[in-house]
Write a structure and sequence with these properties.
Rossmann fold; OB fold (Dihydrolipoamide Acetyltransferase, E2P); alpha/beta; 5-stranded mixed barrel
């Protein structure tokens, strides 16, 4: 039987085998996931996918601090982005093997002209399509609910992110009373987009009873979050009738949902903190309004009471003054009545005298005195010569008396 060797001896053989030029300073194309910086070094995983999107290769990779600043600057100058998860990159890498930490690719250079990764390109394509359809900003343009206390929660049951969200929401110092309704959905894998859309459709059936909807899940590998970069899901969120708050992933993770939702935060806990902060601001505003209302009411009431006291003090004096003015008007009227009566009587006597003079001037006697006479035949006044027959006796009345005349 062949003699066994120790694990460290076996690992040294691997290290020796890694010294081949074929694994040293080689240009490699891959997609970055789980990019993070720690102690000045950048760590990530490089993956390769087949046409169906399945991962067919994966290796851990590092950019040591001595190269990181230079590579980040070169990459940003060419692409406008920092090295991050979800990018397809071309890197110069050397395979290394540590006896304790295992196999790793150490990156010494990057080709910034290589196109951005499929994830970033897909997000841009989805956002461009939504913008062309005129729906990209619809959810973000919804008015802010006031107050925002009735919340639909779309998440996977039992998820740690869901527990963090509900615990944070229940421990508000301001004692805000949030009402949450849970809508179950698969939050990772290929089934996630369709499952989240189905949950949102159920939420929409209760839209009148809710203020907003929160989509939450914890972090994880960026390659897992990539399933949320889905056009149908993004279009559904962009056009949803309630404000959508997205709290998906950790600080370094973003999805296309972050760009179309009404509000985007980094984690489920951050979503709860945002709701609490908004509710606290609303409560503080109400308290300020209540205090101002009380202040104005007290000022108005005080002014009214002072006015009542003033009127109560003035009322007896005003009543006495009013009575005195009434007596004075009555005394003046009493003094004026005889004078007014005498003036009225004199005016009436003058009018009667004028009427008597007019009647006298128009009387038959006055007419006769002016030289006129009245002729009568058989007692009837003569107004025409044809009324006097030949030989008739005519009676003539004049101012001085009467006489009979014989008509020839």
């Amino acid at each position: 039987m062949e003699q066994a060797i120790t694990l460290s001896q076996f690992n040294r053989r691997i290290v020796d085998a890694m010294a081949t030029p074929a694994l040293r300073s080689v240009w490699v194309t891959a997609e970055t996931v789980d990019v993070r910086v720690s102690n000045g070094h950048m760590y990530m995983e490089l993956i390769e996918k087949d046409d169906a999107g399945a991962t067919v290769a994966r290796i851990g990779a590092s950019i040591w601090a001595s190269n990181l600043a230079r590579l980040n600057a070169v990459f940003f100058a060419a692409t406008g982005s920092r090295i991050a998860s979800g990018m397809k990159v071309m890197v110069r890498a050397s395979a290394t093997f540590h006896a304790v930490y295992g196999l790793r690719a150490v990156i010494s250079d990057i080709n910034p002209e290589y196109t951005l990764g499929d994830l970033l390109r897909r997000r841009r394509e989805i956002l461009a399509r939504l913008a062309a359809e005129g729906v990209a900003d619809m959810n973000r343009s919804l008015p802010a609910p006031r107050p925002l206390l009735r919340v639909a929660v779309v998440s996977a049951p039992g998820a740690a992110g869901l527990g963090d969200f509900l615990h944070q929401l229940a421990s508000t110092p301001a004692r805000l009373r949030f009402t949450t309704r849970f809508f179950e959905a698969t939050m990772q894998g290929d089934r996630a987009p369709r499952s989240i859309i189905a949950a949102l459709e159920r939420v929409a059936e209760h839209a009148d009873e809710l203020d907003a909807v929160v989509i939450i899940r914890g972090g994880g590998a960026t390659s897992d979050l990539a399933t949320l970069d889905n056009y149908d899901l993004a279009a559904n969120v962009a056009q949803f009738p309630l404000p959508v708050i997205v709290g998906v992933g950790h600080e370094r993770d973003t999805t296309v949902l972050d760009a179309v939702a009404w509000m985007s935060v980094k984690t489920p806990t951050a979503a709860a903190e945002w709701l609490i902060a908004r509710g606290t601001d609303e409560l503080d505003a109400l308290r300020r309004l209540a205090a101002e209302t009380a202040r104005l009411s007290a000022a108005r009431l005080g002014a009214a009471l002072r006015s009542i006291d003033y009127m109560a003090a003035q009322l007896p004096q005003l009543a006495a003054a009013h009575i005195m003015r009434g007596h004075a008007r009555l005394d003046a009227a009493a003094r004026e009545i005889p004078l007014l009566a005498a003036q009225s009587m004199a005016q009436r006597r003058q009018r009667l005298a004028a009427l008597a003079d007019l009647i006298e001037a128009l009387s038959p006697a006055a007419t006769l005195r002016r030289g006129y006479s009245v002729l009568r035949v058989d007692g009837h006044a003569v107004t025409s010569p044809e009324q006097i027959a030949p030989g008739a006796t005519v009676e003539a009345t004049m101012a001085g008396g009467k006489t009979n005349l014989k008509h020839i």
